[in-house]
Specification:
By secondary structure, the protein is mainly α. The chain has one domain: Glycosyltransferase (Alpha/alpha barrel). The protein is built from 13 helices and seven strands. The strands form three sheets. Strands 5-6-7 form a three-stranded antiparallel beta sheet, with no helix packed on it. Strand 1 and strand 2 form a beta hairpin. Helix 2 runs parallel beside helix 13. It is globular and about 55 Å long. It binds glycine (GLY). Glycine (GLY) binds next to loops.
């Protein structure tokens, strides 16, 4: 089934190269992707999908399209277009770092190191966190760290490996530690965000941006935690991160309904109108594939995680993918971007498509994506 799903997805990606031209997909509205000129936080996912398709198939058409996206990311860096946020890791890990991993292109490596430096500027010494959005004095977002940032840390860990400059590693480790301390709660659920006093660095409290309430568990935030902590473990070997990933994964999997795909927030009331977030589930599937590689063969949670990972993936392919819809632009239906803000509450999300493809390719051919070399 995985092979068939991949073949089907690759045809759609090729059709989309024609459809999208040099623009980038973000989320869809009524099944049609909104496109932009590489100025959103999501643009790396499209580039990553093209690199995955090239690695899987060896088809030059994907490589050509992927290289063109990296040129676009180069221009974005030169002109500093919408880079004042922490999502630099999502943007450049899956575009220029992917190119470096796939074809050892030195220019792509340099561009990725530049991106790591841009991310480093978001480190706030007072409070010790990477500020997610906006400039330091931003009235709404100053003082805010968020759980999603865990997926941006591989860029810093990688920059440390490449350069030997320990500052990158230290910031990544501190951010992962602070995320464990302030974003993961005692019952293994999570806050989406945590706020510090910008002047004193004093920790103020957990809050949400995209979740149901400040104290709720936003499903995608929990998913970023599962995958992000296991990647922090891969880079550092610190068992605390592995343990945190396992605990967050167990919490996520316990909340799943009968079809093994998450509702958008685990604290939201459930009725027939409650939205799913298929993207959260596919992030967790990809994260579990990584996590399983690090677990001891005797770990009592191993078999259960593996079984649930396969049940979720099977359900995503059978019940949420567009396998039977040849004209569809997206791969995975029923993602939710920002339900409370009424932004794409039930549609395609380009990151959902990316992680779906990454998970499938990891399962089928061991192609692992671009978070580490
Ligand atoms: N990182 C933003 C989101 O997950 O929607």
């Amino acid at each position: 089934m995985w092979k068939q799903a991949i073949e089907n997805a690759m045809i759609k990606v090729k059709n989309n190269v024609e459809r999208f031209g040099d623009r980038f997909p973000h989320v869809s509205v009524n099944g049609k992707y909104e496109l932009n000129n590489n100025e959103d936080w999501t643009n790396g996912f499209w580039s990553g999908m093209l690199w995955l398709c090239y690695q899987y198939s060896g088809d030059e058409a994907y490589r050509e399209a992927a290289r063109l996206t990296v040129q676009s990311f180069k221009r974005r860096m030169e002109q500093h277009i919408v880079l004042d946020h922490h999502d630099i890791g999502f943007l450049y890990s899956l575009s220029s770092k992917a190119q470096w991993i796939v074809e050892r292109d030195e220019e792509a490596r340099q561009l990725t190191l530049q991106a790591a430096d841009v991310l480093m500027r978001r480190w706030r010494e007072k409070g010790q966190y990477i500020q997610a959005w906006g400039l330091p004095d931003d009235p709404q977002h100053g003082g805010r760290m968020i759980i999603d940032c865990l997926l941006n840390l591989p860029l810093l860990f990688w920059a440390y490996e490449q350069t030997g400059d320990d500052r990158y590693r230290q910031v990544a480790v501190r951010q992962a530690d602070q995320s464990r301390r302030y974003l993961v709660r005692g019952d293994d659920s999570s806050y989406h965000t945590f706020v510090f006093n910008t002047e004193t660095g004093e920790p103020l409290g957990g809050a949400t941006h995209q979740g149901y309430t400040n104290g709720s568990t936003w499903a995608r935030g929990q998913a970023w935690g599962v995958y992000g902590f296991t990647l922090a473990y891969r880079y550092t070997g610190d068992k605390l991160y592995l343990d945190t990933s396992k605990r967050m994964a167990a919490y996520f999997l316990e909340q799943l309904p009968e079809d093994h795909v998450a509702y958008w927030d685990f604290s939201a009331p459930i009725d027939t109108a409650t939205y799913r977030d298929s993207s959260a589930s596919t992030i967790v599937v990809a994260g579990l594939i990584e996590l399983l590689e690090h677990m001891d063969a005797e770990d009592p949670q191993l078999a259960g995680f593996e079984e649930k990972m396969k049940l979720s993936m099977t359900s995503l392919v059978q019940n949420y993918s567009t396998m039977d819809e040849p004209e569809a632009e997206g791969l995975l239906k029923h993602g939710s971007y920002y339900v409370r803000g009424n932004l794409a509450p039930d549609d395609f999300m380009i990151w959902g498509d990316y992680y779906y493809l990454e998970a499938l390719m990891r399962m089928d051919k061991g192609i692992k994506g671009y978070w580490y070399e």
